[in-house]
Specification:
Blueprint lengths: L7 E4 L5 H12 L3 E6 L13 H11 L2 E6 L5 H15 L4 E4 L23 H24 L3 E7 L9 H21 L5 E7 L5 H9 L19 H10 L11 E3 H8 L13 H4 L13
Parallel strand pairs: 1-2, 1-4, 2-3, 4-5, 5-6, 6-7
Length: 291
C-alpha cells in the first residue's frame, strides 16, 4: 500500500508538464487521480501528451488514473468534473490547481502593448479557473472536514518574469490561496500556494533547445531545474502530514518545503531555493500573521 492509498485527487492541466508529473507522483503512492485537460488525441496540441496517456501511466505507477476531458475556461465542464468525482468517489482529498493558458509568445521578448490582448487568457485559465475549481472542491472537502488545495505558482509572483499578465496571475493565485485558507480554516481544509522554479516540462525543454541563450538566465538555468514530478513529491509529503494545517494560507518555495520534508527529486538531487536571487513569498501561513 502506498502513502495515499484510498485518497482521491484532482490534478488540473495534466495532459503533460507539471500537471502530469504531479499526477504520476500521487499515483505512485496509490492515489486515485482525476486527470484533466483538453488533449484527448495525439495532435490536439503541438506538444505530446493526452489525459488518457497520463491516466494510463498513473495506472502503471500503482494508482488509478481517470481521464476527464475538461476545458477549464468552461465553468459547466468544471462543474461536471466535480459532480463526477462526488458521484464516483464520495470524497475528495487533494486538488492541485495547475491548469494555465500559456500563450506561445510568453517567453518571447516584447512589452505588454506589443503582445496581443488575447494574452489575457492567462487570467481566465490560471486565476478564474483556480477559483472555480477550488469552489467546487471546497463544497466536497468542507463537509468531510479534511482536504488539501494546492495552487501551482512561482517566483514570478514577486519578480518580473516574461510579462505583466503572467506576473499578475501568479500574484493573484498566491493571495487567493491565502484568503481561501481563512474561510477553510474552521473546516480543517488546507489551502497553500507552491512556487516552482524551472521545471523540465516538454515545453521548457523545447524552448531551451530552440534558444540556448536561455541557459544563461537564472530563470531558465538548467542547473537549478527539477523534474515535473518533484512538486508532486512535495505534495505527497503535505498530504500525508497530519499537521499540514499549520501551513494553510502560506506561499511556499517548493524547494524549501522539500528540504523540510526530506524530499529529493527523482534522481536524488536536492533542488535549490532561489529566494536570494528571485525573491521571497509575501504570504505566511494564517496562523503566523494577522488577517
Amino acid at each position: 500500500m502506498g502513502k495515499l492509498t484510498g485518497k482521491v485527487a484532482v490534478v488540473t492541466g495534466a495532459s503533460r508538464g507539471i500537471g502530469k508529473g504531479i499526477a504520476l507522483a500521487l499515483a505512485e503512492e496509490g492515489a486515485t487521480v482525476y486527470v484533466t485537460g483538453r488533449s484527448v488525441a495525439a495532435g490536439d496540441h503541438a506538444l505530446p501528451g493526452t489525459v488518457g496517456q497520463t491516466a494510463a501511466e498513473c495506472d502503471a505507477r500503482g494508482g488509478r488514473g481517470i481521464a476527464v476531458q475538461v476545458d477549464h475556461a468552461d465553468d459547466d465542464q468544471v462543474a461536471a468534473l466535480f459532480e463526477q468525482v462526488a458521484r464516483e468517489q464520495g470524497r475528495l482529498d487533494i486538488l492541485v490547481n495547475n491548469a494555465f493558458a500559456l500563450p506561445e509568445d510568453l517567453t518571447e521578448p516584447g512589452t505588454f502593448w506589443e503582445k496581443p490582448l488575447s494574452n489575457w487568457q492567462m487570467v481566465d485559465v490560471g486565476v478564474k479557473s483556480n477559483f472555480v475549481a477550488a469552489w467546487h472542491a471546497a463544497r466536497i472537502m468542507a463537509p468531510q472536514k479534511s482536504g488539501l488545495i494546492v495552487a501551482i505558482s512561482g517566483y514570478v509572483g514577486v519578480t518580473y518574469t516574461y510579462g505583466v499578465v503572467f506576473g499578475t496571475c501568479k500574484a493573484a493565485v498566491d493571495r487567493m490561496a491565502r484568503d481561501m485558507a481563512i474561510d477553510l480554516q474552521p473546516h480543517d481544509v488546507t489551502s497553500i500556494s507552491l512556487w516552482q522554479g524551472l521545471t523540465f516540462t516538454e515545453r521548457a525543454n523545447r524552448n531551451i533547445e530552440n534558444n540556448p541563450a536561455m541557459k544563461a538566465s537564472i530563470v531558465t538555468n538548467p542547473l537549478v531545474g527539477c523534474s515535473p514530478e518533484f512538486p508532486g513529491r512535495v505534495i505527497v509529503a503535505l498530504a500525508t502530514d497530519d499537521a499540514v494545517t499549520r501551513h494553510s494560507g502560506g506561499t511556499f518555495i517548493t524547494a524549501e518545503l522539500a528540504q523540510e520534508y526530506g524530499v529529493t527529486d527523482i534522481d536524488g538531487k536536492i533542488i535549490p531555493s532561489l529566494r536570494e536571487q528571485r525573491g521571497s513569498p509575501i504570504w505566511k501561513p494564517i496562523a503566523e500573521q494577522p488577517r
